[in-house]
Amino acid sequence: MSLFEGLSYGSNKNVYIIDIGAAYTKCGLAGETGPRCIIPSTVKNSRTGIVSRIWDYSSAAELQESLKELLSVLIFRYLLMSPKDKRVVVVESLLCPTDFRECLARVLFRHFEVGCVLFAPGHVLSLLTLGTTCGMVVDVGYKETLAVPVYEGIPILVAWQSVPAAGKAIHSRIKSQLLDGGVVKTSQHQDQPVASVPDSLSEEILEDIKVRCCFVTDFSRGQAIQDVVLRGADANKLPSPPPAVEYPLDGGRIVTVSGKIREHSCEVLFELDDDECSVAASILDSLLLCPIDTRRELAESIVVVGGTAMTPGFYHRLKRELDTLAAKPSYKETLGIGTFKFLKAPARENYTAWLGGAMVGALETLPSKSLSRDAYLQRGRLPDWCCLDQETWADDRTAQRR
User: Fold this and answer.
1) Residue 327: which of 247, 335, 172 has the closest Cα?
2) Which residue from 73, 266, 317, 377 puts its CA 20 to 30 A from 193's CA?
3) What is the band of 387 on the pLDDT scale with cuts at 50, 70, 90?
4) What angle do CA 110, 116, 122 make, to 5 degrees?
């Protein structure tokens, strides 16, 4: 049977596709080629006026109220239709906390009264956009980089690898460098240290600086930078930095982003930490934990997703890092792979997993694979993510009655 048999093309207004990421939330309808909205995963407290991230919650009650607020914005402002009895596909990470899934299901079923919900792993959905079921999916997101090998549509859970080298680490590097010597020019042509200007380095501004100004440098320059920063080499050996740029703030203020900041900030993704781990090393470590007969196919089917991977120069640098690390004795003798290939999904990296969810939402078999509201209300909680089909739940309920 064809992989996409039963796929209905065009927008399906009865199926919502929701991907709540650490930094941004994507939402749209099944069968569409892109999300209708990509908004920050933040909510504003109606009483205090404080804006907080969805994932930074302290209790289940706080998370539930935040999810109600976020989903209300998605449904009534962007999708513009009643959620009652609608079908929902939730794109989630394999490492999504259980309490978050339970709370999200409770809000969808009890507050919005949706008809059924399918929780689908984003790494498998990313491969679906390419029409394949085998590949090494590398998610370079906001908080972490997660490498998950998927073989025949099944994640190899014993081989997943995670490192805290992602967008948040780049933001921290930019902030520390700007605080160290950054200058803000005011409309009166006065220079002030960045640290003395309030709200000049908010998370939103750091994100914008990263997107507009920073890039991943090539391998040789990156190694020279790491020799100086990490190994204490002579600073005179640093390559000449690229030109500085001026980033405008509100109120006529301008912060100068030096060429050093533009080039050095993204090096945090490729610097080997105390555990000899980086984005490239995590991919190789994941391959080592996979069955030996799957490694070559996985290494030649690397799919990179996540907004941070859209940084200019990322793919070229990652390929060079993989080739260099694989040639080292620690990997060469055990890995036995010298060729790495990347597969390009038919979508931008920041919403590739969402597109896979939109394809699943357009399948005629969606209801049979989803959790219905009646089944949830009877049980009161979610089943394990690996047994979401209705038959398993029916057998489970029959056994309980006995």
Assistant:
1) 335
2) 266
3) low
4) 110
